[in-house]
Amino acid sequence: MRSASLAVCTALLLLLSGPAFARADSHADAVTGPANSQHDSLPTQNKIENNRGTEDRTTPSKLERYNYGLLWKIEHPTDDVAPAYLFGTIHVSDRRVLDLPREVDSAFRSARSYSMEVKADTATMLQMSARFFYAPGSDKNLRNVCGTDTYELVRTAMRGRGLPDVMVLRLKPWAAMLLMSQQPVMDLEEANRLNLDSWLYNRALREGKSVHALETIDEHLSGFENLTDEEQVLLLRKSMRYGSDDRDAREALIQMYLQREIGVLIQSDDESGEHSERFELNMAADDSTVDYDKGVPPEQLRREEQAEKKLHLTLVVERNAIMVRAMQNRLAEGGAFVAVGAAHLPGEAGMLHLLEQQGYRLTRVY
């Protein structure tokens, strides 16, 4: 029953390159190079496939090979260029994540270019942060769009996140939802530490690699900005209904990431799974006795579900296609290292499957 809270955390940590006020290249690295990998060795691709034995090789089974693994080598049978690598990230500054596995570190060192969702430079981060707010002089603000009760709950929550009331008032509902999914930072060192994508960006600059963005800011934020005010408010209130588990949700996502189990980030709405995958973790086994939707009118639940599906289509499906198209020049050059949120990799509409459909050979490295 935690799927709403987890879906918001997934959007922030595994789908969007950086939340508002993300630290960019103006900050010094807090981690000086990856240590020797402390990650446990897991079965190789061949062992995994051999263990599956006689399973039916239908389309869903073929897609299952993309449910596990963070680093993939990309080769095209007819192109005589160095292979590229696609790496699934999680947008956090947790030291467990910044300790790059040896395989990832080696692939990054060998690369000539680094591509990410949007660049982590100061100008881009400032432009993205500005999009979280209603424009000065607008007749809209969080209080008159969401109502006083919801606004006061958001304002109270933001006090622990360092956002003054005057800025909270100007937040768009979707931005409030994302910011509230972040836990207040208690540690000054953690507060000044770059997240994984930005850390890799700074390292790429130091190593003289060319750096490229896979999306414009418009494309990056389109999933949220295409929502109506009503849809934004519905999802904000739903995330607040489930919000007491956000700390647990964040840790659950980090653990799944460290275990490379990216397939659990999507879930099919029907048996076929066709065009219906949604980003959420199925955690019902943990808290199946808790019904966060108890007492919510069925019509409201229906509208919430519609808003979530609309968000998923733009935030995941459409952006996956955009980023795969943007990768083509880098793949043709060879020697590319591409980093995107891990939730963009698996599934029928995932970037790995889209690349395979274009004739690329994909090999799981880590």
Describe the protein.
With 366 residues, the protein is α/β, with parallel strands linked by helices. It has one domain (3-132, 172-364). Helix content is 48%, strand content 9%. It has helices at 3-15, 45-52, 59-64, 95-98, 102-110, 122-130, 142-146, 148-158, 165-170, 173-180, 188-191, 196-206, 217-225, 229-241, 246-258, 284-287, 298-333, 351-357, and strands at residues 71-75, 84-89, 113-116, 210-213, 266-267, 278-279, 336-341, 361-364. It has a 6-stranded mixed beta sheet, sandwiched between helices. It has a two-stranded antiparallel ribbon with strand order 5-6. Strand 1 and strand 2 form a beta hairpin. Helix 10 packs parallel to helix 14 (229-241). The longest helix is centred in the last third of the chain and has 36 residues, at 298-333. It starts with a helix and ends with a strand. Residues 1-5, 26-58 and 268-286 have low confidence and may be disordered.
Brief summary:
The chain has 366 residues and is of the alpha/beta class. It has helices at residues 3-15, 45-52, 59-64, 95-98, 102-110, 122-130, 142-146, 148-158, 165-170, 173-180, 188-191, 196-206, 217-225, 229-241, 246-258, 284-287, 298-333, 351-357, and strands spanning 71-75, 84-89, 113-116, 210-213, 266-267, 278-279, 336-341, 361-364.
Q: Which radius of gyration do the C-alpha atoms yield?
A: 20 Å
- How many separate helices? 18
N-to-C span: 31 Å
Q: How many individual β-strands?
A: 8
Helix content: 40-55%
- Give the structural class: alpha/beta
Instruction: List low-confidence stretches.
Output: 1-5, 26-58, 268-286
User: What spatial form do the alpha-carbon principal axes imply?
Assistant: globular
User: How do the helices and strands follow one another from N- to C-terminus?
Assistant: HHHEEHHEHHHHHHHEHHHEEHHEHE
Q: Averaging pLDDT over every residue, what do you get?
A: 81
Seen as an oligomer or otherwise, the chain set is: single chain
Strand content: 5-15%
